[in-house]
Amino acid sequence: MEHVVGIGGFAVSGSPDDVIKTFALSTCVGLVYYSMRKRAMAMAHIQLPVCRSMSAGDKPSRFADMAPEFLLKEMQHKYAVTPREILISLYGGIDGKGAGDCFRIGEKNLQVVKDTLRKLGLVYNEVDTGGQESRTLVAYTSTGIVEVIKRPMAFRSPAGPSGPARTGPQGPAGRGIGFLR
What we know:
The structure is a single chain. This protein is α+β, with helices and mostly antiparallel strands and 181 residues long. It has a single domain, classed as CATH 3.30.1330.200. The strands form 2 sheets. It has a 6-stranded mixed sheet with strand order 1-3-8-9-10-11, with no helix packed on it. Strands 2-5-4-6-7 form a 5-stranded mixed sheet. The protein is globular, with a radius of gyration of 15 Å.
């Protein structure tokens, strides 16, 4: 089954045939949790750094200060995973310098997610963040592999998209998820 994660949304799956996708991360941050033991995955498309108040349609996955703990609880509740077994990867959060992001939301989102993960005692791997390209993620629950498809932002010259990069739990960063090209 294919799960599409919209802006501020999330998906959690432990079915080996599932694929979780999110599109066009720029200032938003994609947060991916993966348990190799349970072959379970969670993904959030984080839109804003801090939750000041939640409206009726908001989910904790929308906010960088709430999403890490929310996803952890979802994984623990649905799949009985332990925090130590979760491989965590971060994507998106474009660099505001020269990117038309005068409020630097991308950088703030990324920093708040990192700070929140540290407070929770969770180790993360910064897989593909910053820069000036939009990212689409295609993640496979059976393997933990996340394909990253990059596209130039509209304010840049159209140099053409780069191809997908594959990341997964066997990456070079040791414990975390890393690039496999």
